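Appendix B, record 7
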Amino acid sequence: MVVVFGIDISEDILLKVARIAVIGVGSILIATFLRRLFNRLLGKAPERAVRGVSRVLQLIVYVIGALAILATLDVDVSSVVISLGAASIAVSFALSTLINNLVAGFLIQADGTVRVGDNVSFGGIEGRVVRMRTRAMMVVMKDGGIVFVPNAYFMSNPVVNRGRDTQH
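Structure tokens (predicted):
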């Protein structure tokens, strides 16, 4: 027994409190480090998308930290971990197309080979890129029509970039 502020506390409880503090502070430090690293690696990508993905990474680290704290308190977290694993598989299947387009959007913008204002042709589409987002790009066709192209479609086709038209 250890006396803290006049209260007798067992050494086992003090060790658990210390472990919880280390896990909590460690989770915060790891989440902050990952957020900063991710922001630095994808600095050219749109700010809104980087913030969204950074928040998801932080949330994952915090959930892992919370599960570690619960395990330290001798709470059985195996069913929670199994449920989270099953849910993540279901979500990844449901969002696979969206995730594919987001990753393609990051790669397109980080690569910089196509920019807003470039005249491009790919996969039967020919026109001028007027907007680039993380999920899709907007292309104005030669006939004036507007087409929204998912980034994964753009990435999976050979692209001819004719550069910028000085008249626009």
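Remarks on this record: Helices lie at 11-41, 47-72, 78-94, 96-111, 151-155. The chain is about 55% helix and 20% strand.
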